[in-house]
Each structure stands twice: as C-alpha cells, then as structure tokens.
Amino acid sequence: MSESRGKKVDTKQQLSSDLSIGAMFEAKLLTLFCIRALENGYIFELLKERKDLGSRLDDLIFKYQLPGNTSTSQDWQYRYLQAKHRQDTSKMISKEELENDDGKDFSLAKYFRAFCRILRRGDNIQDCIICTTTDFDPNDVVIDTKDCNLPPHQAQADTTATEAAEATKASQPKITLNDITDQDEVILKFESKKTSRYKLKQNEYMQEKMMNEWSNIHVLAKALIACANKEGDSRKNDDTLSDGAKQLRQTLTEKGANLENCKFKFPVHQNFEFGQKKEREQIVNKLPLKVTEEDVKTFFNKFIFVVNMPNEAEFKNILQTEDMIKYYPKIECPTQTSYMLDVTKEMASKKDLGYKLKSEDGIRLLLRGITIVSSKYQKELEKEVQFNEDACNKMAIKLSDLLDNKISLIVTPTPKHTAVKVVSSIQKRPEYKENGSFFITKSIDLEDNEDRKRWKNILKLKSEFHRPLIVVCEKDTPELSNYEDLISDSDEQTAKKSKIIIIRDGNAYENSIVTVKDEITYGELNEKFQNAVLEKTITFQGKTLTVGDLVGNEPDKVIDYLSIEELLFQKKDVNIPRPDTSECEESLYIKRQLTMVFHESFENKLAERLNCTIDELHEKCRITPQGEINWFVENQDRESIWKEMKNLTDEGMSNAIEESQLICLDEGRERIQIVIISGVAGTGKSTILSNYYTEMKKAKPDHWIIKINLVEQQTAFLESVTEDTVVDFFVDHLHIAEDKSPFSRSLLRHRIKTGQRIAFMFDGYDEIGLDCQKNVIQLMKILAGKETIKQYVTTRPHMIDELQFELSQLAYHLQIFNEQHQIDYLVKYWQSNLQEMERENNSIIIQTFAESLAHRVSQTLLRAEEKSFIGVPLHCRILAECYQSELENNVAACETLVHQHIDLKSLYVYERLLDTKLRIFREEKVKSPSFNQVGSHAMDLSIDDIESHLTKLAIETLVVERRDVTTLWPSQQQYFHSEAEKSEKENKITDLGVKYGLIVRSKGDKQSKLQFLHRTFAEYLFARYLHRGMDIDNKININQLFNRKTHGNLVINKVLVEKNYDGVRVFLNFMLKKTEDTEIELPKRLQKFAKSLKEHITSPRDQHTNALTVALQTSNLFHFLLDCLDGTLNKPERKRVVRSAFQHFDFAIFLCKSNGQLFQRVLSYYDADAVDVERIVKEFLHDRYYDYADAVDEVKKLLHEPMTLPYSPDFYVIVRNNERAKDVVEEML
After folding, report:
1. Mean of all residue pLDDT scores within the chain
2. What is the C-alpha to C-alpha distance for residues 62 and 425, in angstroms, rounded to an integer?
3. CB within 10 Å: which end of the chain, N or C, has fewer?
C-alpha cells in the first residue's frame, strides 16, 4: 500500500505489459503443443480464440488423433486449454478466486459453464486445462495426497502454526484437489521444471454449486429476473417452446418469479424471438438444458489444473533445450525457437482470420531451418550443374522404383551432380513440389551421433506424406547399414512412409538394397551448361583453344563425367603441355632436305631382279611414290622380295622429297602416313622432328602431336602393346596426358581410338634395346591401322632395315649440310652467342670467319667421307664452340681468317670439345675473387668428380639393365658419409656437370632427370671409359674395368655385339691403335678379357653373330680383339677360336670392304684344309660371278689392292660345283 501511495502507477502500461507477456506465454504453449504433438506422432489441428468452440477455454484448442488411427471424425480427441500467466507467482490461487462467479481468471463457475457448452456439442473431450505459472494457496485449498506424492511446497509442515487457522475454517466447506502429477502426460511435463497437475475432487459442496448456482440456465434465470418488467403477459404452457425454454420457466418459478403478468425485454437483436421453436438447421445456439449429475461428474474427471508452469522467460529456454534440441544443433536452437515463436504469435494475433495450425503446417514450421539448409545445399549443387528435361524424365522413371522402398541406393561416379538430377526429377511429382517436402543432406552430416539422433527424430515425424531424405556421399562411401537405424525406431506406419535415398560413389551393387546406377553425360546437361563446357578455354600444347575447338562435333564422346567436373567445377587451368622441343633452336635452324631411294624406274628394276613382269610384281606388291609398300603376299615370299628391294635401295639412287609432303596432316594422295627419318649420329634427326612439330602446329593448332623420346620412355616400352591395350599404354604408362586432368585423358583416348587429329613422333629408335624396338614397331603397326594417324620415327642407318620391312615404308634420308649450310649455321650460332657484336663490321667479321673456316675444312679434308664430317650439324656446332674463342680474338684484332690447325677426325673433335668445355669452366672459376692455389687444387678435384659423374651418367644412358650398370660402374661406397651427405655431394656435382655444358635437366617419365645434349656425347664418354681398360700401351691412366671376369663378359656379350652400342664401338675404334708389334705382352687384365672372348665365341649361342664378326665394321677394334687372342692363346687354340667365330659367316661380305687387310688377317688363321677352303670359295662364288675369271680378278683385288668398284649383286652368277673352283682357291691362298 505504501508503494502505491508514494508512486503513481500507470495502470494502462501495466495492463499492456501483462497482455504482451500473456500473449508470449500463449505462443509458447502453442509452440510446445505443436512440437511435442509432432514428436509423439499425432495428426492434429491447433486452434486459438475460437469461442464458438471453446467458449472461455479457447486460448488453445488441441484437436488430434492418436498414432495409428485413420482420419475419421469419431477418432478426433480434444484438449481445451486456458492460459493464465501470473507474473507474480507469490500470489497464489485462493479458494475465493475459485468459488467466485465473477468471470475472473480462476473462476470455476466460468469454466464449468464453458465445459457444459463444449460437452453439449458432443466432442470427445480428453481434458480441459487451466495452465498457470502460479500455484494454489495451501491454506485455502486442500490437496488430497492419498495415493499420490505431495508437491514440495505441500510437504508435511509444523502444524502448530496453522492449528488456529484450520480450526477457524474447519466448519467452512473446502475445495479439495487430487494430485495427478504422476499420471502420463506427453506435452505439459518438463525435465528442467517441476510442474504439478490437479483435478477437482468431487464433493457435495462443489456439486451443489455446479448444479444449482453455476449452470448456464441458473445464471440466465437470475439475469431474466433482474431485467424483468410488468408490461405484458408471458406465455404459459405454449407447446411451441423448446425443452430448454420450458426448463427455464420452471427455474424462474422456483426462484420466486411471477411469470403470469411479466413481459421480458432482452438486449438482443430485434428479430430474436425468445424460446420459440425453430427448425433444427435454423438453430445456432440452443438454450442449454439443466445440468445433470453426469455432467458434473464428467467435469470433475476432465477439468485439470497445471500449475507452476515455467514463466515466459523460462519457457523459451525449455523449448530450446528440451524440444528444439531434438531437431537442431545446440547453436541453432535459439534462432529456430525464436522464429517459431514469432510465427506462432503473429498467426495467433490475427483473430479475424481464425488461428488454425495443422500437423503438416507444424512440421513445415518446425523443420523450416532444416528445409532452409537443405534448399541452400540444393542451390549450391544446382549452381554447378543442371540437366535437360530428357535426363530428368529418365531419372524420374528410376525414382519410381526407389520411392517404393525404405532404403534405396544410387551408385554414380559424381554423387553431387547425380543429386541435382534426382532433385529435379523428384520435384516433378505433385507431392514433392512444395519446399520442404523432401530433404537433401551430405553424408558427413550424419556421421556424428548427435546429428544422427536429430535425423532419426526428423524421420519419425508423422506426416500425411512421407518426406524422403536424400543422402549425398560426396567423398566417402559409407556402408548402407549405417542408415538403417535412422528409421528403425519409427512406428510401423511411419516406417513404411520413411524413405532414404543414398547417392554414393562406386560401381558395386548392394544385394539387399534396391540399387540403380547413374552416370553424368554431356548430353544430359541443359543448354546453358553445355555451352559453358564448350566455351571453357584451355592451354593446348602452347595454344589457347576452347573445349569446343578440340572436341569438334562429338562432344558427348569426349566429355565424360570427370571431364565435366574438371572443366566446370575445379578452379584450375587445364593445360595439355607441348612436348619438349628444346633441341630445336629456331634461330639456328637450317631447312633440311630429305631423299628417298624410290624413283620412276624402281619397280621396273625390282621386277628384273625378280625375273618377272611389272604386272606380276604388282600382284605381289605395289610401291607408292611416297614409298609405302602395299603387300599382297605373306611370309617367305614377302621376305625374298624385300631382300631384292633392299639390295636395290643400296645402289644409292634417290629423289628429293618436299618438306610439305612430310608434314602434311590433311588426308589425300600427297599425305604420307609413316615417315621413317634416317641419318647418321648428329645429323639433326631430333631437331627436324621438333621443327616439323612447330610447322604442323602452326598449320593445325587443334591437332595433338605427341613427340616421344624413346630413351626417356625406355622402361615403359619394355612392355608389349596390343590393340586392346594401346590406348591405356599412352594414357596410363607413358602419361602423355596429365594424370590429374580427366579431360586431357579422355580427349587423348578419343583421339587415339578414332585416329582423328593426332600424330606421333618416336625419336631415337636406334638408341633403345632390342626388346623395346620390337615393341615400338608393334605399337606403330597398331597405330597404322588408323589411316588418319600420322607417324614419324627417327633412327640411325644401321637400324633402318627392320623398320622399313615391318612398317612397309621406305625411309627418308636426312642429308648433311652443304658448304653454304655450314656457313649459315656457323654465322647464326656465333651471332646468337655473341650478342655484344652487333656493330655492322663485326657481323662482316663473323660472316668472313665462317666462310674461312668452311673453306679450310674443305681444303684439309680430301676424301668425300671426311669432307662430309662438318656437314653433320652436331659436328658443325662443336666446331663453332671450339673456334668461338678464336673468333672473339679476331673480332678484337679485326682479323677474319682462321689460324688454328684443323684436324677434323671424329675423335679429335670430341676431345677438343671437352677441352673447350674444361677451359671455359676453369676460366669462370678463375674469375672468382676467392680463387687461389687451394682453389686451383679443389677445382682439379671437382673436374675429376664431374668427368667421373658424366661417365657414370653415360653408362646409365646407354645401358638398359640396371644390374649391368652396377657391373660396369660399381657403387663407390663411402661409409664415413651419411646418405644425406652423399646425396648433397651428388647434387652439387650434378649442378657443376650442367654448368660444364654436356648435360641438361629434362623431364622424363615422371620426374626431372639428367640427359646429354646429344647421345654421341654419352657414346664418346663410354668409349673412353672402355678404352682406358683396353689400351695396351697405357701403363698409368688405366681403370680396373677388366680386372674382373664379369666385366669382360658383359662388355663382350653386349657392348661389342648389340646394335644399340654401334656408336660406342665407332668411337672405341678411333681410340684404339693398330699395333705392329706381334710380340707385345698383354697385361693380365687383357688376358682375362681374351679368355672371356674365347668363351663367348666357342660357347653355344647365336652362331651367326659374335663380337669378332661384328667388329669387322670397325677395323681397329677387330685387330685389337685378334691381338688379345694372339697374345693369350697358343697358335692351334687361337686358330680354332677364330675359325669357330667365322664358321657360319658369309665370306662374300668381304667383297664390300674397302681393302683386303681384314680378309688377309682372317685367312691367316686357316690352313689349307679342303673343307674350309671349299666353303669360303663357294661363298665368294655363290650368286655372285658370271665366270671364274671375274672371280679370280675380284679375289686378287680383295687381297692386293683397294676395291674401286662398288659391290653390286648384278656382277655375279651361280657357278657351284665347277671344276675350276680349285684355281680360285689357289689364287686366294
């Protein structure tokens, strides 16, 4: 009271605040009923402010069906609730508030009349609830705790304090409540808040009030009496009155009213006729009948108080922590709860529209946050890709089967994008058009146990329609059993409707699960995304092109699902790299000429050799002007024709070929499918391939030209290839396309399969092992099956025969530089390396110096084969490097002539090159300010290390088998160094080796590797390494190579025999000197070598090939081998070994040699044995001579003077078994 006197209270503001709090309390109750009803599987309608239905119990009307019931009117049950939020909970509910019929918050009379009105309607009333935040006053209201637990505030207390009050009120009738808190309740019960629930206990006192005071009919009677007047007669026992009107008249009489002379006026509508009977359909509100005892009993049973409800602030927290947490992560619960409360309050505030919330609407409202997240994820996926109508219709057909099952599976390489197709398809069905009618989520969101619990709760929600859950396994492939428990706890009806569609990667089908397979294709994309793919730009072998440029008119055959993912979704540039063409320096390139042995009379001459007509020849084979051989015979017939064809090509006649023909990629008569380029070492075979690549890419930038260094890919070519594996070989073994680029790989596969817009260049056929060569030929023959595939292959001349025969194509021979080419090349080289010489007179000096050098070379070298030496581009470049320092001096002195002595033997040039590299390396080191005597000594050690490292690299480059490398160059164990230290030293030496100028870093199979600038550098170093072990005169600078027998065996059995070591043998031949001393004593290492050579020759093997017969091509090496045998074996033994070596040898080959010295040396190991002599003579005469006189003359030339005529089979005829053979033998011996 004192506070009210001292401070004026704004009653309107207080009332507004109370109303606002009450509205929020009601909104929370509505939300609570919605969430918990959904959780328990009810189909329901929530109504509010419907006095026509609930009268004074209309704050919340809960109309519902229990789980499992069908939707018929008899199954609906009702709970009516009136919410009374009391901010001051200390103000408890008193007996007076309950008994007063004043229409206030807790007036039982008011609620009884409302209950009777509801009861008359015939609803199946579950209960009528007064829900309040306060409690009953224990001093006024008796709580019957019999058979129930007392609430905490009503526990037994000290009775002395209340005895007087109880004695005073003992005689007064009590209102008694039964505690039903422990009875089942699924909505108005909380974990964090203790509430109590009570029913009125039926007694005579309360029953009397309800039947005689509080019923509607008694209240109406009192009202009528109060407003009665004496203005007219009332109807007495009119039969037109309703039963309610008659009972009202009786009640009025009992209340003492004189009804005979009174006339009533009611403040109602003027057309209202009180009590008059109407047709049933016209009656809106019938007059109530009198309350019966059954009505009162039902009221006591159905009317419930729920007290100690959480207040407005507590309530929100309970909704978050006990209800919303079942569907949302904790962090999202406040937001979702606030949203649901706001929507509920807003809907409830629109009284004119009538509030009704159905269970379907409740689910949408509750799961609105889930729907938002699902829709957001759906839109994210749709940003990446969308599909056309046809693709969606096909998926819709598949979904028809899937949606009939509880759990189903879609396997696909791209789960995310198949999910877009699934969503687009499922939305075509009417029941899934609305937002929130299905959910889509990532599988990762189902891994956490709490997440799984929430999704289980979501899927348990009972709905008129099932809401499928689409699970997208973006990166993982979880077991399907992980999802079965998500719907295992649902009731049978809900479980039947619950659907989970799992979309995951993989190809495996699950036996127990309905499974469909899906793949994303280019043709399924809608027009927008198809265009986006085709307009994507990529770097294609150095050129920027669009995907559309590369796929042409068949995008659906190239662009697979992984390509779509790479081109559209991955934020990276697609780069299809160009091959390494570094060996072609465009600024130095000199256009080259190639020739082919085919000419106009070639077929005629071939027919003559075969003793057939040209028509008969054409029945066996045809040769096109481009050198392609079309065979119509097989096996031996083909081989015999080829033998004569090869002999004809050896005559040397040839025609020049236009470069445009060789690089032409267009189909037509001029196009050559296979180009075999032959040239000696250093003629620029790799360079011309690189130049062809450049020119072809200029003409056809969309063509994929694949240049393969066979040496770098030698390991891959150890594997044979078939038609079935050829595509995989290029893609997976050679890694032509980047492994991480699906589009590059798919485009390559398509190009190879179709043969369209693709060409192959195989460089270095002669540099790989025999097994690899066979596999390369097999691969090229397979590729040749596609006539549109262009192929190039380079080789040295000694490897050309098998290529020509197997590929049915005559080779093109790369011509060496003529003198003008040499001058042009020297000038270009020096100008590019001496940039400071830009003054005009310096250019003149360079030009004149180049002409002088070329002229001196021409004068120095008299023989044609020697003059051709500088015509080899590599040798020309070496000369340019070697003479660059003299040119620099000449420029400084304004001189133009070459003064240095010129010795252009191959060996000298390479030695001079190394000396030049060494000099430059030293000069650079000397320029260092820290260089001194110690530095000079250290540099000498470094140079030794570098040359040793280069030799090791040379062996590794040329020797295929790793174990052979280890044999030739044993590991230099340094136990005092750690692996890290050894690796660091190796890297330093490698870096110095690169600076030395003979090697570069290149990209091989998968990692950067070292490579010589030219293979001949490796061959020279390997030959020098062998020579240091073979040199008979060398007493100091020798290595330990032949100290062990295994080393000698390896060198003899492989290096001195196999074709791929031909270059090494040539260099070794130059290094070895022919000794004139027949009595020289061999060192022990070479005696071991000779014994290994003996075993090699005499052991069972290919009798047609051995180190001695192969060495005939290199005379110094041949003499060295014989010297070793002579110095180790006795005369009979060495004769036996040599004759064994030549046992199956065709002696007619000696007719091709330039002199008879080699033949004379061989014959020195033969005695006048009739068998051997007869065999040798027959081989000289077989298919060779027209008569014996010619035979004798040729043998004399062979034995006594150099041959002057070229060897030609046309000179010889068969003369076997002729009596004059003895004369030939005599002349030879």
Report:
1. 78
2. 37
3. N
Per-residue confidence (pLDDT) for residue 214, from 0 to 100: 81
Say if CB 131 and CB 188 are below 8 A apart. yes
Could you identify the residue written with the tokens 């790793």?
Answer: 962
Report the alpha-carbon distance of residue 308 to residue 376 in Å, rounded: 42
Cα–Cα dist 478/576, whole Å: 35
Q: What's the rounded Cα separation, in Å, for the pair 394 and 1020?
A: 68
Please state, in angstroms and rounded to a whole number, the distance separating the CA atoms of residues 737 and 676. 25
Measured in degrees and rounded to the nearest 5, phi and psi for residue 746 equal -65, -40
The C-alpha atoms of residue 805 and residue 799 are separated, in whole angstroms, by: 11
Q: What integer pLDDT is reported at residue 516 of this predicted model?
A: 87
Contact 897, 860 (CB under 8 A): no
**In contact, 1012 and 999? CB cutoff 8 Å:** yes
Do residues 590 and 877 lie in contact, with contact meaning Cβ atoms separated by under 8 Å?
no
Question: Using an 8 Å Cβ cutoff, are 217 and 242 in contact?
Answer: no
**Euclidean distance between CA atoms 657 and 647, whole angstroms:** 21
The 3-state DSSP class for residue 401 equals helix
Give Cα 916 distance to the centre of its chain.
50
For residue 877, which phi and psi values (nearest 5 degrees)?
Answer: -70, -40
Q: From 29, 85, 27, 22, select the one nearest 342 (Cα to Cα).
A: 27
**Alpha-carbon distances, residue 767 vs 594, 777, 874 (angstroms):** 21, 14, 17
Cβ atoms 194, 279 nearer than 8 A:
no
Report DSSP letters for 249-300, one per residue.
HHHHHHTT---SS-EE--SS-TT--TTB---GGG-SSPPPPPP-HHHHHHHH
Q: How far is 785 from 792, CA to CA, in rounded Å? A: 15
What type of residue sits at position 493? Q
Alpha carbon distance 939, 930 (integer Å): 12
Residue 999: the pLDDT is 66
pLDDT of residue 922: 60
- The residues that bridge with 709 in the sheet, in sequence order, are 763
- Distance, in Å, from the CA atom of 375 to the CA atom of 390, rounded to the nearest integer, reads 23
Q: Which residues of the chain have pLDDT under 50?
A: 1-9, 11-15, 147-162, 164-165, 167-169, 229-236, 265-278, 280-285, 862-863, 904, 925-935, 937, 974-976, 1004-1006, 1183-1188, 1196, 1198-1229
H or E element at residue 447: none
Burial of 636 (0-12, 13-18, 19+ CB in 10 A): exposed
Q: And the tokens for 60? A: 């919340």
> CA 63, CA 71: separation in Å to the nearest integer?
12
Q: Angle CA(562)–CA(565)–CA(569) in degrees, nearest 5?
A: 165
Burial 997-1007 (b: 16+ CB within 10 A, else e): bbbeeeebeee
Q: Judging by beta carbons within 10 Å of its beta carbon (0-12, 13-18, 19+), is residue 1207 exposed, middle or buried? A: middle
User: Rounded to 5 degrees, what are φ and ψ at 176?
Assistant: -115, 140
Cα separation, 98 vs 106, in Å, equals: 5
Q: Is 1018 exposed, middle or buried (0-12, 13-18, 19+ CB in 10 A)?
A: buried
Tokens of 806: 């197997």
Neighbours of 227 (CB within 10 A): 11
Report the C-alpha gap between 95 and 55 in whole angstroms: 23
Residue 139, classed as helix, strand or coil, is coil
Residues in the chain: 1229
Neighbours of 392 (CB within 10 A): 22
3-state secondary structure of 601: coil
DSSP for 332-351, written as a single string: GHHHHHHHHHHHHHHHHH-T
Rg (the chain; Cα; Å): 54
Q: Judge residue 1192's burial from the number of C-beta atoms within 10 Å of its C-beta, 0-12 exposed, 13-18 middle, 19 or more buried.
A: middle
* Cα–Cα distance measured from residue 330 to residue 237, given in angstroms and rounded to the nearest whole number: 71
Beta pairing partners, 305: 130, 198
Q: What is the spatial distance between Cα 780 and Cα 752, in angstroms, rounded to a whole number? A: 12
